[in-house]
Amino acid sequence: MLDTFTLVVCTTIINAMMIVTLVALYRTSPSEKSILDWLGGICCFFVTNIAGLTLSANLLNHWLTPAVANTLFVAGNAMIFSGIYRYLHGQHKWPLVCSVAAITFLVHLFPFMHENIESRILVTYPLIIAICLSAVVILCRRQWQTRLFGLLPLTIVMGAFTAQLALRFFALVLENVGINVFSHSLIINTGTLGVMLYVMALAMSVAYLVNWVREQSLKKISRTDTLTGWLNRRDFTYRMPQLFSTTRHHRQPFACIVMDIDMFKQVNDTYGHTVGDEVLIHVSHQMRCVTRDCEYHYRLGGEEFVLLLPDCDEKQAMTVAERVRKAVESSPYLHEDNTLDCSISLGVAVITANGEGEWESLLKAADNAMYKAKASGRNTIRLDVLSRPRQHAANGSSYQASKNLSA
């Protein structure tokens, strides 16, 4: 095994490389402020290793050197915790960092801390283990709640480092009572090696997390309509076949509701496209407010919107459609001194549990039902049920039209 001095030199070099890595990572992701906490933690480890080098080389044998080294090591672990907490909850824990650093330094004022490294480990390690274990707990809790796989590498790294610290601590406790589980040099050197591997793995897991979040953000942007926040046509063409296939595999009904804003061209021609966009945002918001239990909201283009309702029969689908129709009808859009009465026409198509057809035919049936609703006076709902044998009956009832969308 490498001697202690060589291990500390290697660890110092690795720390310096990881500092450069995190600086570069922060420059590419300046909005991710938690990187600053993680960077501060590794900087503390770097200075700790510099102090360790002076002790190993007998350059500065003074009680203050290990006091500063241990204080920064504890502060570094607290900074790592602060970064994790800030990432998960948006708030740093710098007061905690200062508190544990002050406590660690004050403890080193006692004479027994100057005797040997074992005494310092036995005193400081419980605090470090508590900090790291707290980080593992909040990571596991968030992992369980949200299934954010980007957090998994960081969770594993923190868990492994905490386990290593606990193992070394208990091995040293047993050694002090005369039970030698490991050799003394192994206990000390594995700590230095563990920090080196920890810093490398920590930097890599942080880089993975930041890049994973960026990738998820890009995916969300690529499948989201920027104006309304609804999913876009690209996501629809990707998800609809999968969703339809899964539902049909389980022999469940599937409903599709196509919605189109009435007289929308008149709004654009009268007030301009800026007001038209505001109306789109307003109407889409009203529709979403009454369909929060629906996961699949799509804007296919222009003023046309689609709701997908897996495991939903015609009665349930008509109930949803009527709820949406009433929400839009009862929420006019206010533009300066003008009130724009809003309404939508809805086409509902449902394929029954035993029905036959593909998702394209379901969408086409809903689209045709929507045009029938417009042709019958707008602000109405039409229903088409795809069953066995195939039926195209427009079974929906019409609702009395309110004011069309107009100034």
From TrEMBL:
Q: GGDEF domain location, by residue?
A: 252-386
What's the protein here called? diguanylate cyclase
Q: Which NCBIfam families match?
A: GGDEF
Transmembrane helix as a keyword of this entry, yes or no, is yes
- Organism from which the protein derives: Salinimonas iocasae
An example of a GO molecular function for this protein is: diguanylate cyclase activity
Q: Which superkingdom? A: Bacteria
PANTHER family, per database record: DIGUANYLATE CYCLASE DGCM-RELATED, REGULATORY COMPONENTS OF SENSORY TRANSDUCTION SYSTEM
Q: What is its EC number?
A: 2.7.7.65
Q: Which cofactor does it need?
A: Mg(2+)
The signal peptide, as residue positions, is none
* Swiss-Prot/TrEMBL catalytic activity: 2 GTP = 3',3'-c-di-GMP + 2 diphosphate
Q: Where are the transmembrane segments?
A: 6-26, 38-57, 63-82, 94-113, 119-139, 151-174, 186-210
UniProt entry keywords in alphabetical sequence: Membrane, Transmembrane, Transmembrane helix
